[in-house]
Amino acid sequence: MDEPAPGPRPRLSGRAVAVLGATAVVAVALDQWVKWLSTENLEEGHPVRILGGLIYLSLLRNSGAAFSLGSDYTWVFPVITLIVIGWIGYMATRLRSLPWALALGLVLGGALGNLIDRLFRAPGFLHGHVVDMVSLFGPYAEYFAVFNIADSCLSVGVVLAVLLELTGRQRDGSRISVRKKK
């Protein structure tokens, strides 16, 4: 791989940061709205079958990560989330790429959506259970973890970031080219 040519570093792009911020705000708002709808309209233990059983809406409160991993260490998840938020804030100071802004905005929005649950939902501060409601192929995570909008945003953002890295797109808007040697 060739390294980018040295030269003046591009400055912060207000447009990219605005995309990051707007994406995060929309992700958090949608996540919290769907969680509110779920807690108001779904009952635990009474899943709603959709699309012939392809999707189930199953209200669950998860103290851990996917498949309830780490349920005894709920305080760890907010700490990790705060580190991720700090890293995204740092990256935003160098951000000029709109695709990277979208990816980082999705990760930030997903992280904040679940952090809100960890901070403000029962059983208490730093130990709150995340509201999950979407289950694929079975009502109780028989085939795939039950998830929420924040989890979806995190997953899509991370996949997009990996694709951007693999294609050589940099957060500062430059691109690393791959040339074959003779």
Automatic annotation (TrEMBL):
Give compartment(s). Answer: Cell membrane
Instruction: Describe its membrane topology.
Output: Multi-pass membrane protein
Which top-rank group of organisms is this from?
Bacteria
Report keywords, A-Z.
Aspartyl protease, Cell membrane, Hydrolase, Membrane, Protease, Transmembrane, Transmembrane helix
- Entry annotation: catalytic residues: 132, 151
EC? Answer: 3.4.23.36
Q: Which reaction does it catalyse?
A: Release of signal peptides from bacterial membrane prolipoproteins. Hydrolyzes -Xaa-Yaa-Zaa-|-(S,diacylglyceryl)Cys-, in which Xaa is hydrophobic (preferably Leu), and Yaa (Ala or Ser) and Zaa (Gly or Ala) have small, neutral side chains
Q: Which pathway or pathways does this protein act in?
A: Protein modification; lipoprotein biosynthesis (signal peptide cleavage)
Segments traversing the membrane: 12-30, 75-93, 100-120, 140-164
Recorded hits in InterPro entries, A to Z, give: Peptidase_A8 (IPR001872)
Gene Ontology molecular-function annotations: aspartic-type endopeptidase activity
- Its predominant location is membrane
The UniProt family comment states: Belongs to the peptidase A8 family.
Give the NCBIfam families listed for this entry. Answer: lspA (TIGR00077)
Q: What does this protein do?
A: This protein specifically catalyzes the removal of signal peptides from prolipoproteins.
Q: What is this protein called?
A: Lipoprotein signal peptidase
Mind giving the lineage of the organism this protein is from?
Bacteria, Bacillati, Actinomycetota, Actinomycetes, Micromonosporales
